[in-house]
Amino acid sequence: MLVFFVRPAFSANLDQIIVNDASGSTQLTLNSGDNVMHTGTGAAIDVSVVGSAVRGEGVTVTAGSGAISTIGVRALTGGVVELRGSTVNAFGAFKPSVLAA
Fold first, then answer.
1. Nearest to 69 by CA among 47, 88, 87, 42
2. Strand, helix or coil at 96?
3. How far is Cα 55 from Cα 36, in angstroms, rounded to an integer?
């Protein structure tokens, strides 16, 4: 069964979004003007598993802080993130060792 989450048509301030439903049946649609803000570890929007997706238009994603290197958007193992006309900002300490992992 495919599950769609469609929120009412008004913008919101959201925290970290993780879509990793093992069945790959979760689809999340963000509204224009939504702000996804995450200052912890991991990606602000993190989608994995084939069939899972986060989509939106006119969305702002802000990830990280001065001390933590955070990823703005990540899609793994067939997950999809599709943001049109949107902005993704990632801030934090640069750690070259992460690139070697």
1. 42
2. helix
3. 13
Q: How far apart are CA 35 and CA 29, in angstroms?
A: 13
Angle at 33 between CA 20 and CA 61, to 5 degrees: 50
As a whole number of angstroms, the distance between CA 31 and CA 17 comes to: 14
pLDDT in tens, the chain (101 residues): 555 555 556 788 999 999 998 888 899 999 999 999 998 888 999 999 999 999 999 999 999 876 666 789 999 999 999 999 999 998 876 656 655 54
Residue ranges per domain, the chain?
Answer: 3-94
Quick one: tokens of 91?
Answer: 């801030």
C-beta separation of 74 from 49 below 8 A: no
Contacts of 38 (CB under 8 A, 6+ apart): 15, 16, 44, 62, 63, 64, 70
